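Kindly review these tokens for lecture notes.

. . .
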Amino acid sequence: MQLRELDLIIIIAYLAGVTLFGWYAGRKQKSIRDYFVGSRDVPWWAITLSIVATETSTATFISIPGIAFTGDMTFLQLVFGYLIGRVVIVLLFIPLYFRGDMFTVYQILDRRFGPHAKRSAAMLFLITRSLADGLRLLLAAIVLRELTGWSFAVSIFIIGAATIVYTYLGGMKAVIWTDVSQMIIYLIGALVAGYILIERLPGGWSQYVATAEAAGKFRIFDFIFDISKTYTFWAGVIGGAFLTTATHGTDQLMVQRYLCAKSPRQAALALLASGVIVFAQFVLFLMIGAGLYAFYNDFPPATPFVRADRVFPAFIVNELPVGVVGLVIAAIFAAAMSTLSSSLNSSATTSLTDFYRPLAKPEASDEHYLKVSRWMTAGWGLVQMIVAIGGTRFNESIVNQVLGIASFTNGPILGIFLLGALTRRVFEKGALTGLVAGILFMVFVQFGMPVTFGITVAWPWFVLIGSAITFTVGYGASALFERGAVAAIQEAD
């Protein structure tokens, strides 16, 4: 299918508007405080919407409906865990973020353990963010490719370049305020698509409910305890809580938003309010997936869908009227770009604050740091575009790849943060030992355990396992190191 003229105008207008806003937001920036944390004067409600928009990548917009299309609504069990994780962050971590003039969450580790712990966690963040968000970029490119017939490389370049430009120009303030507008755009797009989907059913809403109910699409809870199953009550509530505590509490992508708030109270309010909106949003996307099942049950596609995350894009490009297609495609771009822009800015912040500034130019001017930050933003954008092109070789659902990557590395990072927050006798050497042990054990869990023992662990458990191993080994290693040091002193005496 080729884009009609009206649809193309809408998409071009959206991309041009975002770019112009990036220029407008960045025109008065003079320091990295402006560029990275928006001068710390962003209202809580804007941070709330920015958190939601960032959490809602194209993986949500496209793949979550695919989950309900092939299954049911048991994904919501994870969202219950997401809400619990937010409460833990408010109580445990947010007070730490506002002690001093911080730019990255990893500076906490520097104060508690030392520079090696800080840079180790920061490097893991940069690697994880590049891989996961490169795949998110690929999801948006899938839609553009199906619309235009362009190659994946060209589609990835168009979306990636537009995101780089407005993030390069506007910094964090442009990211947050653009997130606000992008959230409104993609919610309107999803609601319009959902409404047309129901209208296209011969029996309307009644048929939607009857068909989805008969197929078990409205099932939410699965209380079976099976660590190999992704969407169960236990994996959702426990694993989801640990996952959110890691992604929203120790990941620069999200923490950078809290640092833009005027006070810890406003940061906490923004985070808790975002949980309510996220829950409602996931309900909407899952209901769209159930509607797609009802629609294609009546109107089967000429060729069966190979992947679940191709179902919603196919409906958009083949079933929506002219004009609405452009709106929904702009919504998909908005969902993608809100996450990608945040990723680029937070990666640049981490690169400059945790690596470049202390190691290369500790006494440079704000003008120099601002210039370097912008080039780092562009550089990380290019890295993610390369990852997206490489991701075209994957066959399984991309949402599981994205969340699996995040869960794989966030567990050990959460573990070292918990060592810092909950202990006083653990020091840098022990913490780093725990971090390495956590990473190595997660490699075994993901790759060795299925081969050696025939046991597969679902990704929602990854953060819990990784953090538990890191915490336990780190605490134990510190005790051993301390005993060894005492023994050496006694022997010397």
Remarks:
- The mean pLDDT is 88.
- DSSP finds 19 helices and no strands in the chain.
- Residues 6 and 31 are 41 Å apart (CA to CA).
